Amino acid sequence: MITTEINASIGHLIIDLPGRSMNVFTPALADEMGRQFERLVGDDAIKAIVISSAKSSFIAGADLEQMADLAGPDVSPADALQRISCYGNLFRRIETCGKPVVAAASGTALGAGLELMLACHYRIAADNSRAQFGLPEVKLGLLPGAGGTQRLPRIIGVARSIPLLTKGTALSAQDALSLGILDEIVPPDQLRKAAETAVSEGRVKASAPWDEKGFRLPGGDCYAPANANALVAANAATHASIRDNYPAPYAILRCIYEGARLPIGKALLIEQKHFVLLVQGSVAQNMIRTLFFAKQAASKLARRPAGIAKSQVGKVGVLGAGFMGAGIAQVSAAAGIDVVLLDRDLATAQRGYDNIAQALEIEVKKGRLAQAARDALLSRIGVADSYAAFGDCDLVVEAVLEDAALKASVTKATEAATSANAIFATNTSALPINELAASSIRPENFIGLHFFSPVSRMELVEVIVGKNTSAQTLARSLDYIQQIRKTPIVVNDGYGFYTSRCVDAYIREGIRLLADGVSAALIENGGVALGMPVGPLALADEVGIDVLYHIGHLFRAREAGAWADDRHVAQNRIVDLLKECKRLGRKSGHGFYLYPGDAPKRLDTGFVGHAREIDIAEVKERLLYAQVIEAARCWADGVVVDAAEADLGAQLAWAFPSWLGGPFSFIDGIGAQAFVKQCDQFVALYGPRFEVPQLLREFETKGGRFYTDGVPVQSPLRGAAA
Ligand code: NAI
Predict the structure, then answer these.
(1) Could you report the per-residue pLDDT of 189-236, keeping only the tens digit for each?
(2) Helix or strand or coil: residue 243?
(3) Residue limits of the 3-hydroxyacyl-CoA dehydrogenase NAD binding domain (predicted)?
(4) pLDDT tens by residue, 277-321
(5) Does residue 343 have its Cβ closer than 6 Å to ligand 1?
C-alpha cells in the first residue's frame, strides 16, 4: 500500500492502493501512511519527505463507503467525529512534523487527496493535461472535512476560495498553479527530481505559514471589503439557486467565516463539527447513495446478464437524421464508432450531418474540442438514403417521428437490409416496445434505447426490455452504451416506460394547479423551490404542447380508474386548447410563456390565478408527490425493478431533486407508512390521482423499505429485465 525509499537524505513515501486504478483514502491507508510517515520523521538521517503516488493520478478522494456508514443508526456524532478524524489528524501531523514535506502529484488530486497536498509545505504537479485538482465534496452534499475549508483560504485567500469550495469546481494543473494552489508544474518524468531540488535549494520550509507568528490571510480576513462582499454574494447566490434544500454550501461558508478568525488548530475542529452534521444528514446520504453508488453500479453495467461475451459495436446505423438522430450519430462517432445516417432522402440526411458539423464547430470555437478531433469525428459519419447502407451495421438506432405506423414500416425495411445478428433499437419516448416489436421479424434483437435531449450532454440512456428481447441483445446494448460513455438504467416495457411517465406527471400536476386557479408564477416558483431546474410550465413549453397532447392521449387510452380520470380531464382540456391555438411552447414562440425574440421568456399574463391563492408549500408538495406516486406506480407495474437504478434515472432523466435522492429514497426517508398516509390525505384534499398503488399499500403494511442497509430491494414484480 505504501512504500518508502531514501535518496540523498530525502525520504520518499509512495502511495499505491492495491486493486484500484486510483488511490482512494481509507482509514486503513491513513493508518499505514501515518506509521510509515513517523518512521521517516523519526529517522535523523532524513532531512525532508516527499509524498507521491505510484499511479498516474495522485489521490482521488476519500472512501465513500465509510462516509455512508457514518450515518448508521448506531453511530453517534461523537463516534463519527472520531472515525473521520484519522485524515485530519494525519494531515495536521504532516504539517507540524518539523521537517519539510513536499507533495509531488503525478496526476489528479481531488477531495482528501488535495487536502493532503494543502497540508504539505510545497506542492508540485506533473504536467498532465488530464489531471484535475479540486474539492468536489459539495457535489455529494459534504464539505472537505480534513482541512480543505481552512487551508485553501489561508493559501489563496477567502474570496478566491469561495467558488472552489461551494461549487466544487475542478481545476487544471495550470489553473491551480495560477491560483497559487500549486507551487510548480514539471514534466512527468522530472517530478521526483523537481521535489528533491526544491528541498535542496531551500525552497521548502519545515512549517506552514499559518503556524508562524503574525500570519495574515492573503487578501485579508473575512471583513476585508472584497472578502465580505464575496461571502455575502455567495450566500445570496446560493440561496437563489438552491434555496435551503442543500445545507453543504452554507456550512462551507460558515466554516470559512468562523475558521478564518481562529488559529488553524481550532479552525480545523470547527470544520470537523460541520462535516459530521452534514455526513450524518439525509441530504448527503441521499446524494452519496444515488449519485455515487447507484451511478457507479449503473456505469459498471450491474444489470448486464452474466455469461455473455463482451461486445463492441463497429458500425451503427442511425435511422432519422433529425434532432435526436443527429445527436445519437454524434456521440457514437465521438466514441470511435463508424456511423451511417439515413433519412427519407439524401438532402435530409445531409442536413442532419450539417447540424452535427455546426454543433462541433461551436465546441471547437469554445476550445472544448480540437479541430483534428472534430475532423476525425465527422469522417466517421456517412449519409445515405438507401437501407442497403445498413448492411454491415451491428446496431441500428431508429429515431424517426413518434408514429407507430411509420416506426413499423422502417423496422421492416431495416430488418430486410441488416444481418440476422444486428440489433434494432428504437428511441421512442413513449410507445410500448412490445407493440413496436410486433412488426419485427427478429423480436429477440429488438430493444428500446431511450436517449434524452440534448444527446451530447445527457448522460442517461433508459434501456427498455421487451418480452421477447434476448439477454444477448440486452448485454450487447449495454456494452454499446458503455462504449459511448453513457450511463444506462434498465426497465421493463410499458407505455412511457419509467422516465416519460414520471416527468409527465410533474408537468401535468403543474397544469392541474393552473386549472385549479393557482397563478402560473406561484406554480413555477414552487417547482424551482422544490429543487427542480425549471417549473412544470416552462418544462411543458420545452417538451412542446403538441408532444404533450400526443402523450396525454396515448396515456389516457391506457390508464384506467378514478385516479386516471382525475389526472387527465382538467389537464388535457388546457393542453388541447393550447394546441388548438397553435401555442406549442418555445418552438412556436408562445405556450405558457411568451418568447419575444432575443429577450428572456416571460409568463403569459393570461395565466394569473383566479380562484384561490395557496401556500407555496402546497404547490411544492403536490409537484413532488405527483412524481413520486408515478414512480411507485411504475414499480407496482413491474416497469421499475431496482429502486437504486430508478432513483438514479430520476435524477439523470428529469432532474428529480438530488437532495431527496430519488422517489424511492424519498419514500424510505419519510417511511412508507407516512408516505401512504400522506397520499391518502391528498386524495381527500386534491383528488384520486394521488392514490397509491395497492402493491405499495401491501408493501407498507409489511414494513417494507426500498433500501435495507443501503442495498436496494428488488421489485416483487421482476420481469424480463430482472
Ligand atoms: P425530428 O422530427 O427532429 O426527427 C425525425 C426525423 O425522422 C426527421 O429527420 C425525419 O425526416 C425523419 N423521418 C421521417 N420519416 C422517415 C422515414 N420514412 N425514413 C427515414 N427518416 C424519416 O424528431 P426527434 O425529436 O429527433 O424525435 C425522434 C424520435 O425520438 C421520436 O420517436 C421521439 O419521440 C424520440 N425522442 C425525442 C426526444 C426529444 O427530446 N425530441 C427525446 C427522446 C426521444
Answers:
(1) 999 999 999 999 999 999 999 999 999 999 999 999 999 999 999 999
(2) coil
(3) 315-493
(4) 999 999 999 999 999 999 999 999 999 999 999 999 999 999 999
(5) yes
The mean pLDDT value for 514-532 works out to: 93
348 Cβ closer than 6 Å to some ligand 1 atom: yes
Q: Is 401 in the pocket of ligand 1 (CB under 6 A)?
A: yes
CB 264 within 8 A of CB 636: no
Residues 6+ apart with CB under 8 A from 598: none
Probe residue for ligand 1, chosen from 341, 397, 400 as the CB with the greatest number of ligand atoms within 8 Å: 400
User: How many angstroms is it from 341 CA to the middle of ligand 1?
Assistant: 13
Put residue 130 in one of left, alpha, beta given phi > 0 → left and psi -120 to 50 → alpha. alpha
Residues 484 and 511 sit within 8 Å (Cβ to Cβ): no
Rounded Cα–Cα distance for residues 561 and 689 (Å): 9
- Please calculate the CA angle 376-325-298 and round it to the nearest 5 degrees: 85
Mean pLDDT on 323-346: 97
Separation CA 248–CA 250 (nearest Å): 5
Q: Does residue 333 contact residue 313 with C-beta atoms inside 8 Å?
A: no
Does 322 contact ligand 1 (Cβ within 6 A)? yes
Q: What is the pTM of this model?
A: 0.92
Mutate to test the pocket of ligand 1, among 324, 330, 343, 350 (most ligand atoms within 8 A of CB): 324
Q: Is-contact 104 52, C-beta < 8 A?
A: yes
Average pLDDT of the chain is 94
Which is the catalytic residue, given 121, 450, 568, 590? 450
Q: pLDDT tens digits, residue range 141-163?
A: 999 999 999 999 999 999 999 99
> Can you point out the beta strands (E) in 331-486?
338-342, 381-384, 395-398, 423-426, 446-451, 460-465
Edge-to-edge strand list for the sheet holding 122-126: 2-7, 10-15, 48-53, 101-105, 122-126, 184-186
Exposed e or buried b per residue across 57-91, where buried means at least 16 C-beta atoms within 10 angstroms of its C-beta: bbbbbbbbebbbebbeeebeeeebbebbbbbbebb
Q: DSSP for 122-178, please give it.
A: EEEEE--TT--EE-GGGGGT---TTTHHHHHHHHH-HHHHHHHHHH--EE-HHHHHH
Task: Map residue 110 onto helix, strand or coil.
Answer: strand
325 lines ligand 1 (CB under 6 A): yes
Per-residue pLDDT, averaged over 72-95, amounts to: 93
The CA distance from 687 to 567, in Å, is 9
Q: Which of 502, 23, 493, 483 is nearest to 299 (CA)?
A: 483
> Which residue's alpha carbon is nearest to atom 14 within ligand 1?
400
**pLDDT at residue 400, as a whole number:** 98
For residue 327, give the ligand 1 atom closest to its CA. Answer: 26
Residues 238/49, Cβ–Cβ less than 8 Å:
no
Atom of ligand 1 at shortest distance to CA of 409?
Answer: 18
Q: With b meaning 16 or more CB within 10 Å and e meaning fewer, what string describes 11-40? A: bbbbbebeeeebbbbbeebbeebbebbeeb
A 10 A CB-CB count for 716 gives 12
Residue 410 beta carbon below 6 angstroms from any ligand 1 atom: yes
Instruction: Kindly state if the Cβ of 453 falls inside 6 Å of ligand 1.
Output: yes
Those residues with Cβ within 8 angstroms of residue 145's Cβ, 6 or more apart along the chain or in another chain: 84, 87, 88, 137, 271, 272, 274, 275, 276, 279
Is residue 716 over pLDDT 80?
A: no
Hey, what amino acid is at 71? A
- The reply to whether omega before 454 is within 30° of 0 (cis) is yes
Tell me the domains of the chain and their CATH numbers: 2-280 (3.90.226.10), 315-492 (3.40.50.720), 499-712 (1.10.1040.50)
Per DSSP (E only), the strands in 571-708 are 593-594, 602-603, 707-708
Active-site residue, 450 included: yes
Whose Cα sits closest to atom 39 in ligand 1?
Answer: 453
Which single residue is written with the C-alpha cell 501515518? 34
Spatial distance between the Cα atoms of 513 and 192, rounded to a whole number of angstroms: 64
